[in-house]
Amino acid sequence: MQKIYRTAFLLLLLTFAKPFASVAQDASKYKCMIQMTNYMGEGAYVVISLINGKGAYEKTLYVMGSDKQWYKTIKEWNKFYLKKPNVSAVTGASISGGDRSVKVIEIEKSKINAGYKLRFESAVEDKQYHVKDLEIPLTTEALAAKSEGSGYIRYVRFSPN
Amino acid sequence: MTISIWRYSHLALAISSFFLLILASVTGIILAFEPVSANLQPYRVKHFDELRLAETLPVLRTAYPGITELSVNSQGFVQIKGSDDEGQELTAYVDPRNGRVLGKPVPQSAFFQWVTALHRSLFLHETGRFFIGLTSFLLLLITISGTILLIQRQRGVRRFFSRIAKDDSAQYYHVVLGRLSLIPIILIALSGTYLSLVRFELIDVSKHSPEVDFDAIKSAPLRKTSEFEIFKTTKLSAVESIAFPFSTDVEDYYTLKLKTAEIAVNQVTGEVLARADYPKAVSFTNLSLDLHTGRANSIWAIVLAVASVNILVFIYTGFAITLKRRSSRTKNKFTAEESKFVILVGSENGSTFRFAKAIHNQLLKAGEKSFISEMNNYGAFPKAAHLIVVTATYGLGDPPTSAAKFKAMIEEYPQQQSIHYSVLGFGSKAYPEFCKFAYDVNYLLSAQAWALSATDIHTVNDKSPQEFSLWAEAWSQQSGVQVTVAPECYSGYAGKMEKLQTRSNYPETTLPGESFTVSLKMRKRLPVKSGDLMAIYPLNDHRERLYSIGVIDGEIRLNVKLHEGGIGSSFLRQLKAGQMLKARIIVNKHFHFPKGAPEVLMISNGTGIAPFLGMINENSKHKPCHLYCGFREHASYERYRAYLDDSKAQSKLLSLYPAFSRETTKQYVSDLIERDADFIANLLKRGGVIMICGSLAMLKDVMDILEGICQSQTGKGISFYQSHNQVLTDCY
Which residues cross the membrane (chain B) (predicted)? Predict the structure, then answer.
């Protein structure tokens, strides 16, 4: 009898725990702040991608810039995007010079401290394209620090959400 | 002539930019509706302009702990960004007073995005932006040159908004709309040009972030956000965006991006850490964006849309004017030196040229050597026998552009042989200085030793084919070359003829050189007045003969001089009472009894008395009328005497002065005019009207005397009174 109760309780627990588990245990959310430099020109298109240990694109975490006609200017990422064009869930507006943008990105816990990298790729209409405006190792330390960009991005900061 | 330079550049600029202008205008019209529809959203709260940051920031931070950014758009909508309690991204329009969500921002629709890109860059990126910027600059130049043309047309800046005579031409709409939409279009062009300069970094609008000294950041004293001095003094309406501190760490601060500066504010103490003022150019950029897009004000957006529609209308009417002007140009088959007929044209916009060209073509068709050119090309015409001057008048009685040099040239080139001249003035009576330049030219020519008058000066109001045909008839008779109203000037005379019945005719005893009177019965409602003309076709061919009509007691009276072998007078003489006659009535409005005039002085010789007899009959209001009539003998006068004495008794005629040229006291009607110089000068000063009907020779004598009287007693030439409709002539 006791066994049956225990099993039922366990099942009940699993039923409710399932949706939470995927969020609470497998992935965590980070607020990611991107501060742009005071460059002149149109709004920058910035893509945040998860890069695996082999240096290949694994997942698109965020696309800042909504007009698809400009995606081809973010050359490297665009190759990956053309294979898996489903990024509509993680798009937002492009960021202008001097502006700051705070986005919530979701990172699977298993990828942290596991040799993965976060890449910030940027392009501005009729201006230079930066394939690695910023690339940081996906480690606990890096997620706590302030990382300087090399192109249109001044710096990026994270904070657990 | 400077006007030509401006007109030329106006046209050249328009031609070089019209394609892109059409594109920019059409897309501009569409884009104007974006701010209009955006402004219809109810996201702007009441008293928005009064709200200060101290009242709204603490409220929003309490309501949304995850808020990271607040922005205020040009419509006064407050938008927040951040994350909600579950960590989901949050973007919403909120009420800044209580944080209530008002709505969700929708990204610019793909359609407007597409139109915007076309409007800004033609989908050609930098290249397209350059061309659009250039177009904008050209539009600015077009507007400036157009304004100068308009000022010249209106004869001065102060008369800029004075009335423009209405007609249906492309030119009228071009000018009237130009005046109305001048300011919005200048602003569109100016702001568009400025924004392009900014875009190409020719104007520095680079912003610098405030330099925060992190070592100097204090973490005490702790103040409430609502007590921060800077938040208490800054209005929400002055804000473009606010970045909230990324964390509670004291090194993270508020960044206020105002319209004119960027300010960093300590999130604990509320003190201003640093401030960076934007260059002035940033404010201009914002202003330009407001003006160019209408984003801040729906009404302005609509004004911009209307102005853009006007640009399209300008392009259409502008090219219509140009094509019309071009089509009037002509090439000469014969040179000025070899031509027997010389036609000189003073035309402002080419419509006058069309009529002149019609005359020219008819002369060529008749096998004559004819030369046509602008009046400015006046020169030596060694073979010329006839000179026809066809001219319009510009502005306040000035010569049109193509005739500006004429007066000087005529002194320079005295002709070696006698030339018959005829002046035909084109104009509109809607202007006060009707055909003044034509009158001036006529007077100028009459003073030249080589010039012989072929016809009296004729004027054509509003391109009236009837009035043109009056001249054509008169000139044809003198020159022996038939000129008619060409179909290209006048699409088909419907050919409606009146049937008139002869009531009485007294020709039996008439000898050649004497005159007789024909009375014709007309249908009751026939709109005919004394001074109108009757055209008959005695041989049923193109030959037309014109007679002045006097209407007396509902009958048409013609006074006809019998010419030996004259087809018109012979035809009329043989009419018997009761016989029917077909004729065309030509309304000759400029020679009707002047209703508005306080006093009328009539001068005639011979049968020229006919219209005056009718007018006197018409004068039931007993307006002071004076008749100076010349005849050869008493006998001719006798036929009118009873009627005139009777009119005098009825006060329809105030004074009557006959002159007889072949009696013992040889007197011409011009002698009477000279005698009464003071009276006549005073009459003109009072606004009285002088009407002259009779032979051209009489007209010339009378006009010479009138010119003398006017010059010495009123200080103005007779052409002044002519252009003010105070001297009306109908001579042959």
Answer: 12-33, 130-151, 172-197, 299-323
